[in-house]
Each structure stands twice: as structure tokens, then as C-alpha cells.
Amino acid sequence: NKKKKKTGNKKLHSWAFNRLYQYLAYKGEMRGVEVLKENEWNSSKTCSSCGDDTKSNRVERGLYVCSSCELVANADCNGAENMRQKITPSPHGEDRSNGCVAQPSTHLFDRESGTFHTREQVVS
Asked: What is the tally of structural domains in the chain?
């Protein structure tokens, strides 16, 4: 039954989310940090960049393409950014970067020695 499946999924999702929220609230209280619960309903239908709320911007399940500013984003990430802006607004256009950029290291397998080495050691 389609209705039972939808209801069951909703209950399961709510249970896991509520348990996570309780855990975070408990840990936050221990450290003096307030944990806010924000409803995600309709959060991914508005552009997090320009605020356009055209219904057709939600192209597919996971794709958001803004018809006004041409932002292309994962719909869930766009929704998460909208929720962040509700709680901790930042001036429009302000760069929120902390200046740190991840520099992943790459290790390649050396068949001759049977060990892993950095890219520089293998190539040179």
C-alpha cells in the first residue's frame, strides 16, 4: 500500500531526526550552546543567492537552477543555505569564506615496492 509506505518512511525519518536533535541538544546544553530546530519545509524552493521563488526553479529532485541569477546548486544544499540565512544572516554579497582551502593529499600505490607514496615521489 503506497499510503502505508509513505507514512512508514515519514515516521522512520522523524524518529531518526528527533533522536539526532535530542543528542545535539544534550551536547549543546553541556557546553552552553543553544541548538535550534528549524523546519525544512519549502526551504529549497527559494534561491539562496537572490531570493527568487519561482516554482519552476526546482528542476528535478536534487537540482535547483535559478531563472533569475542562474545559480545552479543541489536542491538540499540550497535549502540548507536558506535555513542558515534565517538563523545567522550575513550581509548580501559578503564572502563567508574563512580563507582555508582543503589541500587533499594523494597517495599512489607503487607496484615495485608494494607501498603507497605521495604523487611527487611516484612521478619523479
From this structure: 2
Residues 32 and 48 occupy one common structural domain: no
42 shares a domain with 87: yes
pLDDT string in tens for the chain (124-residue length)? 555 566 666 665 666 778 888 999 999 999 999 988 878 888 888 999 899 999 889 888 788 999 999 889 999 889 988 888 888 776 666 666 666 665 555 666 667 777 777 666 555 4
| Domain span holding position 69 | 38-91
Please, is 43 exposed, middle or buried when counting C-beta atoms within 10 Å of its C-beta (0-12, 13-18, 19+)?
buried
**Is residue 120 within a helix (H) or strand (E), and if so which, with residue range?**
helix 119-123
Picking from 31, 69, 63, the residue whose alpha carbon sits closest to that of residue 48 is 69
User: Is position 114 within any domain?
Assistant: no
